[in-house]
Amino acid sequence: MRSQDRPRRGKNERMLSAGQIVALQDRLTRLWHQATQESEAAAGEWLDLVERQHRANFDLWHIEDEARAPRVSDAELAAVKRRIDRTNQLRNDLAEELDRMLLEWLAARGLPRTTAPLNSESPGLIVDRLSILTLKVYHTREETQRKDAPEGHANRNRTRLQILEEQRADLAGCLDALWQETLRGTRRFKLYRQLKMYNDPALNPAVYGEAANGNSGSAEA
Q: In CA terms, which of 9, 29, 106, 149 is 20 to 30 Å from 15?
């Protein structure tokens, strides 16, 4: 490899650590379920962004629970659905921002190599999946400790918990492997925009169609 093609190495090659991310998500999930709902100072801009993205998933999880409440009214359900849409948009925006930050960090080091094979999933999307798995782990563990649960409930959820923890460990390993391969120049990833349409009034026919009907109705009146 020619010297000008060789990736430039920086002092902090680690930048991304799946173990550090999972530990932070676990810690924040426990903290946010306490009455204070306070956060903690993340160690640096990258982990601060990981925290914000996890918070969006945390909020989305509990807003969706509100939508499933048995006695929720139609009006309340409509309001909750709009909160779900807004929070899900934020969640996806922050996952993209994670990839953007990593790509900027890599670009300063001559990475990723444009000739390297392309990975179909980006680190930001994997961090998002880890976030959701962390919430599943937390709530499934809660179900193993429920005092009022029916017979067999705890054992069934202990089995589910083992599966979830294995899946999360596997996914964390895949994230670390992708990052290390990217640093070595043997793998690359791209920023994939989600381009959600439902929140854009110019792209959602249920929104612009109603607006058009309303305008025509006004003209006819």
A: 29
Q: Return the domain boundaries, the chain.
A: 15-202
* Pairwise CA distance, residues 193 & 99, whole Å: 10
Sign of CA pseudo-dihedral 165, 166, 167, 171: positive
Per-residue pLDDT of the chain (221 residues; tens, 9 = 90+): 444 444 444 444 579 999 999 999 999 999 999 966 566 666 689 999 999 999 999 999 999 988 888 888 889 989 999 999 999 999 999 999 999 999 999 999 999 999 999 999 999 999 999 999 999 999 999 999 998 988 899 999 999 999 999 999 999 999 999 999 999 999 999 998 877 666 667 756 766 766 666 665 544 44
Report whether 175 contacts 131 (CB < 8 A).
Answer: no
CA distance 161 to 152: 14
Task: Work out the burial of residue 8: count CB atoms within 10 Å of its CB; fewer than 13 is exposed, 13-18 middle, 19 or more buried.
Answer: exposed
Query: What is the pTM (predicted TM-score) of this model?
Result: 0.83
CB atoms within 10 A of CB 205: 9
